[in-house]
Amino acid sequence: MSGFPTYLVRRLVAAVITLLGVILVMVLLVRALPGDPARIIAGLQATPEQVEKIRVSMGLDQSVPVQYWRYVVNLAHGSLGTSARFGTTVLSEIGHRLPYTIVLAVFGTLFGAIFGIALGVLAATHKGRWVDAFGSMLGVAGISMPVYWLGILLIVLFSVMLKLLPIGGADTPSSLVMPTITLGVFSMAVVSRMTRSTMLDTLDQDYVRTVRAKGVPERVAVRHALRNAFIPILTVIGLQFGTLLGGAVLTETVFSWPGIGQLLVQSIDNRDFPLVQGIVFVFAAMFIVLNIVTDLLYSVVDPRVRLYR
Hints:
By secondary structure, this protein is an all-alpha fold.
């Protein structure tokens, strides 16, 4: 076996090892948290027998190696456990909320990619001018501004003052506008800076000078340069999408968006450790899959790239 199958198997093996490490960290963190999770779940009025029953049902009476092995075995059978708060399977709870998070991450990534690439190209083609300075200012502001603060500002402006958009929830399509902007601004800033940097390097290449010397319109030369500079930009966009999936926690909380980010915060508050572990595992798995897909897209964007031989 060689070529693509070998490359894919190698990446999948690395992904499995990474996920096993994530599971180990989750189990250790549950043991390290202060307080008795079983007592918190059972309530202050519960008897010691009731608390012990919950502890046994959650496997908290077992050692770390045993807990780790049980989690891996259950995962191999397609189970992430049962939610201590809802009494339903973790997979079903995540399945109800995950589509909302994916929609928000997709729109946030599209917002960041479209406006970030456009801003980066404008800054690179107008180096040293006011457009470049304006793009740099927006980039610094987008990276520096906390997500929750930007969300609050948007709520005050568009919901409280102008009364144009709903404050939160996911009842109407307009409910997606402010969370998308909030989540996409940071991504836009990162993509714009990367686009500007790679475009400046590409525009200084000999082939671009040759194209310009032949009288080809500037927009055509820029389009060719952007295509050749797109691989690092694609890497950033792929990483940003994975980051937005996991980083939507604050945004979903601010806007009461019913995704798994909000569910994670609620699960932590309620000490629902099976659900917390399941959400973290799903986040990690999605991020790893996105990295693999992004790498495979390299050869689609640029046929000269070969990830395997």
